[in-house]
Specification:
321 residues; mainly alpha; MetI-like fold; 14 helices
């Protein structure tokens, strides 16, 4: 009886310690989320100094968004994400495999890891301001080009290709270090016996990477892809600062969150709530698709076959000894 009372007393302190988290989650996350869902079904906006609503209108906000330029901005968001993510994941995989490979004999690995991760520590707003200054018409990049003989400065942010390329480059530089470190940790978690067995069986570097490394790091790849998809849908600060909130040129760099921010600025809370729900549903669907693609039934079967392969290799080594 005494031991039960003591355990109850200890449990009480555990609940007390986690109570602040649940209170902050309730106040700052759950209640605003419920209000967002509720406002999406209401006409609620400000016209001048007059506030209209909230008046229940059902799915009218959702229909109005489909008739607006939302799909165009969704396409912009997808293009900007792909421009930054594809080189990010390719280079992160290459760097992770090189740094972990003992045969490469890379010196000062810790220094390179720090250098790779450093851009991730810089705020996105500061990064965007830096690129805005560097690639402006009177910036240092154009100054260098004109000193090298170019007659007219390049308007990097005056063309669709230039603006999207800069946004993609910034997203790549900010996040490829984080992806590299995570993928390195995943590759280091693979048993060295598997790589040793593959070498004895005559696998080359390409076969070892595509047939062993990639399938075994699927969980971390899934996490990287899912967080990247969510981050891509929430892309705001870099294009907002680089284009001064206009999505120029011709709104080709306007993202969904910038579109959402424009509704919040105009105090149209009904449309903003409906757009937030669209983003929530789309991100959930995309994350589910990515998870199913990277963590299917075949990955479990592959893991089991790799364990059998490793056991067989250990038995062969024991017989040789």
């Amino acid at each position: 009886m005494k031991s039960k009372r003591k355990s109850l007393k200890y449990a009480k302190w555990g609940y007390i310690f986690i109570l602040p988290f649940f209170l902050s989650f309730l106040i700052f996350s759950l209640i605003p989320l419920i209000d967002t869902v509720r406002y999406s079904f209401y006409e609620f906006y400000r016209s001048g100094i007059k506030e209209i609503g909230p008046n229940f209108i059902g799915l009218e906000n959702y229909k109005a968004l489909l008739d607006s330029d939302m799909l165009k901005y969704a396409g912009n968001t997808l293009i900007l994400w792909l421009i930054g993510f594809i080189p990010q994941i390719v280079i992160a995989l290459l760097l992770a495999s090189w740094f972990v490979d003992i045969r490469m004999k890379i010196h000062a690995k810790q220094f390179f890891k720090v250098v790779i991760y450093l851009p991730n520590l810089i705020m996105a707003s500061a990064f965007a301001m830096l690129f805005f200054t560097m690639f402006s018409t009177n910036g240092p990049i154009n100054s260098i080009l004109t000193s090298m003989g170019m007659k007219n400065p390049i308007d990097f942010m005056g063309s669709t290709f230039g603006t999207r390329s800069l946004i993609g480059l910034m997203n790549f530089l900010m996040w490829f270090g984080n992806s590299t470190i995570m993928l390195m940790a995943a590759i280091m978690g693979i048993s060295p016996d598997i790589f040793e067995a593959s070498e004895l069986d005559g696998c080359n570097g390409r076969q070892r990477f595509f047939k062993i490394t990639l399938p075994l790091i699927r969980p971390i790849l899934a996490y990287t892809l899912i967080t990247s998809v969510i981050g891509g849908l929430q892309m705001f600060d870099v294009p907002q600062i680089l284009t001064n909130g206009q999505g120029s040129p011709d709104r080709t760099s306007m993202t969904l969150i910038m579109f959402l921010n424009s509704h919040l600025k105009s105090k149209n809370y009904g449309m903003a709530g409906a757009l937030s729900m669209y983003l929530f549903v789309v991100s959930g669907i995309l994350c589910f698709i990515v998870y199913r693609m990277t963590n299917g039934v075949d990955s479990d079967e592959f893991s089991k076959s790799m364990k059998k392969y490793e056991k067989a290799h250990k038995l062969r080594r024991k017989k040789r000894l």
